[in-house]
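Annex B. Sample input.
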Amino acid sequence: MNLVVHFDEIFLKGNNQKTFIDCLKKNICDLFVGVKVTRIESGLWVENFKQPEIARLALVPGIANFAIAFKSELNIEKISKAVTGYEWGSNITSFRIKAERSDKRYPLNSIQIETQIGSVVNKKFGYKVKLQNPELTIHVDIASEHALIYGNVYAGASGLPVGSSGKVMCLLSGGIDSPVAAYKMMCRGAEIELVHFQNQTQVTQEVSQKIMDLTAVLARYHGKINLHIVPFAEWQKQIVINIPADYRMLTTRRLMFKIANQIAKKQKCLALVTGDSLGQVASQTLENLSAVYQSVDMLKLAPLIGENKSSITSLARTLETLDISNRPYEDCCSLFVAKHPQTRAHLEDVLKLENKLNLSTIDKTEYISYHIGM
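Annex B, continued. Sample output.
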C-alpha cells in the first residue's frame, strides 16, 4: 500500500528544510525494507509499505501524521470516481470532505471541490455530512500534477528526524526512565548511543539480554544503535570499602558520568543524557543532581526532568519497553540505595569522599561495544 506522510517542525527550518526532509526520507527507507520514498508538495509519498508496520511508523521521530493514500488525475469527475471507488470501511455513518489546493491555479476552489465530491459520496454510500467530528474525513489535496486522496490520519511522533541534531550518549540503567529519555532525545533529532554500567553481582544471560532487548526496541524507531557495556565490579568494590552508605549512590553516579564522558568523547557525542526526573527519588533532588552533574564538563541533558512517573510509564508502554524494564535486575545504582540516603548533598563533602577512590584509571576503563539493529 501507499502512504502520505506529513511533518510539522521541518517547515520551520527555512532554507534548511531539504536537509531535514532528506534525513527523514533516509530514516524511513532504512527502517522499512523495500519502501520507496519521494517528496511531494504536502510531505512525503511512501510506496510499498506493509500494513502491519503502521504502529511502528507512528513512533518514528519527525512525522506529524500519515495516512493510507492514493492518487487521481486532476479532473473533478475522475477524483469523484476514485473517492467513491474506494472501500472506506464498514459501519460509517458520518463524513466530511476536506479539500486543500497546493496549486491555486486549479479552477475550483476548496469549497466547490468539497461540495461536488461530498454530494457524490452521500449519494453512493448514504453517509451523512457532519462537519464537526465525523467518523470519516476524506482528504483531497490538489497538487500540480495529481490529486492526493486519503482518509483519517494516524498521529505520528512529531519532532525532528533522528540524525538531524547531532549525537548524544544516553546512560541506560535497565529501568523504566532511561529508555524513555533516550527516545525523547531521538524525537528532538538526536542520534543516540547507549552506555550501560553492569552490576557484576548479577551478571547472567537474562540480565545481559534485558539490556540488549531495550536497545533493540529503541532501534526499531532509530535504526542501528551502538551499545557500550561497562563492567563495574572494581568500582563497586572501591565504593563499598571507602564511601559511607548514605553517599554511595551519589559517588556511583559521579563515577558513571566520568566514565560515560570518556566514552562519549571517543564516539564524538556532544552531550550526556540521563533519565532523571526532579524529585522522583533521593538522588534526584536539586542538590544531588547538582553534585552529580558537576562531575564532568560535557553538556548534560535530562529530557524527563519535569515529567511525572505516570507519564513516563505511559510512554514506555507505548514504546514497548515497559515490560522489558520490569524484568528483575538491580542495576549498579539500585545496589547502593541506603536505608537513609543523602538528599541534600554538598559538593565539597562529595569531593572529599571521592578523593578516597583511585580515579587515575578512569580514562582506561574497559568496555564492550555492540552494534544492535532491529
